[in-house]
């Protein structure tokens, strides 16, 4: 270059995107208007030209809660800044803990003193050949946990997909699952443990 020549440098920055098959929709309500601006306002990522069936507005992988300590009530989780719950402010802190009753894994996530419906739920121990281990991880920069089968080390519930949200009227937990046949998620008074599960073709 000589003294009469100039150089124009253009820097293009791409925000970290998520594999289309691993996106968690930020505004799942159909017909949401002004989606791009609403998406940016809560810290989600907007895709101007998504493929058919792929969310246009979705949570970044690093969204949810971060581990800040451990107490007698469990792991202390504080809301991760930068990504807001689109349906109300996230409660922070919340607590994560788990226990095992025979072959059953009981995982609890929520704030202290949260109201629980007064249902009588049996707490007897049921032993089968199945055994499970719960692993905590921060591999994506936020708190996540995995439930693995001891006999095969197969992950059957993996929340590293992100997107944990916990507000007064909206609770969201997303996970990679090992099968479309799901039993025993949640505590309820039904006589059938099978959970209805619709697996999208792009998952």
Automatic annotation (TrEMBL):
Molecular-function GO term, any one: catalytic activity
InterPro entries assigned to the protein according to its UniProt record, in alphabetical order: Gal_mutarotase_sf_dom (IPR011013), P_trefoil_dom (IPR000519), P_trefoil_dom_sf (IPR044913)
Annotated SUPFAM superfamilies: Galactose mutarotase-like (SSF74650), Trefoil (SSF57492)
Entry keywords, A to Z: Disulfide bond
UniProt domain P-type: residue ranges: 11-61
Superkingdom assignment: Eukaryota
A Gene Ontology BP annotation from the UniProt entry: carbohydrate metabolic process
Pfam family, one: Trefoil
SMART domains: PD
Protein name from the UniProt record: P-type domain-containing protein
